[in-house]
Write a structure and sequence with these properties.
CATH topology: Deoxyribonuclease I, Chain A
Number of helices: 3
Number of domains: 1
Strand content: 25-35%
Largest sheet: 6 strands, mixed
Helix content: 10-25%
CATH class: Alpha Beta
Shape: globular
Order of helices and strands: EEEHEHEHEEE
C-alpha cells in the first residue's frame, strides 16, 4: 500500500492490508483486498453446484463484513468474484467505481483476456466517483483498475 500522505493504524492479514490517512481534515480508512480464490464448477445442472456458489458468496460477504469499518472508507482489489451484492446487501449506499462512472470495458481478469471485473474499488457514501477505467499492465495477471473520486462535503 502506498500513499502521498502519512499512513497510520496499519493492519494486515492474509487477504488485506489497511491504513488510515487524513484527507481534507477527515480520517479515511483505505483497504487493499485479495479475497480467496473462487469456487469453480461446471456442473451447472447440479443443485450441489449452486449450493457451493451460494456458500462461497455467503463466506465472502461475511469476510467483508469483518473487514469493513464504520468510518468513511475506500476499499478495493481482487474480490475474486463479480457479484456486487457481496457489498451492497449489507451496505446499500456503498458505490463501486466501475458501475458508477466506468469508461471502456471494466474487465480486469485476466490481463490478456479481461473477461470479468473481479477487481473493484468501492467507497462509502462520503465519496463521489469521477471516473474509472481498467488499464493493461506488464507485471500482473490482472489489469489495473484506476479510479478518481472527490469527497462530498460536509460529512
Amino acid at each position: 500500500m502506498f500513499a502521498r500522505r502519512p499512513l497510520r493504524d496499519l493492519s494486515s492479514g492474509l487477504d488485506f492490508a489497511a491504513a488510515t490517512l487524513n484527507l481534507g481534515g477527515h480520517p479515511i480508512r483505505v483497504m487493499a483486498l485479495r479475497l480467496a480464490p473462487p469456487v469453480f464448477r461446471l456442473d451447472l445442472w447440479s443443485p450441489e453446484c449452486w449450493r457451493a456458489y451460494a456458500d462461497d458468496a455467503r463466506q465472502r460477504r461475511a469476510r467483508l463484513q469483518t473487514l469493513l469499518p464504520s468510518e468513511p472508507c475506500l476499499f478495493g482489489g481482487d474480490f475474486n468474484a463479480t457479484n456486487p451484492r457481496l457489498v451492497t446487501d449489507d451496505r446499500p449506499r456503498f458505490k463501486e467505481a466501475g458501475r458508477s462512472v466506468a469508461r471502456g470495458w471494466r474487465g480486469t481478469g485476466t490481463n490478456d483476456f479481461p473477461m470479468v471485473a473481479v477487481d473493484q474499488i468501492w467507497a462509502s457514501p462520503e465519496f463521489r466517483w469521477s471516473q474509472s477505467y481498467a488499464k493493461k499492465t506488464q507485471n500482473s495477471d490482472h489489469r489495473m483498475l484506476v479510479a478518481e473520486f472527490e469527497l462530498i462535503e460536509p460529512f
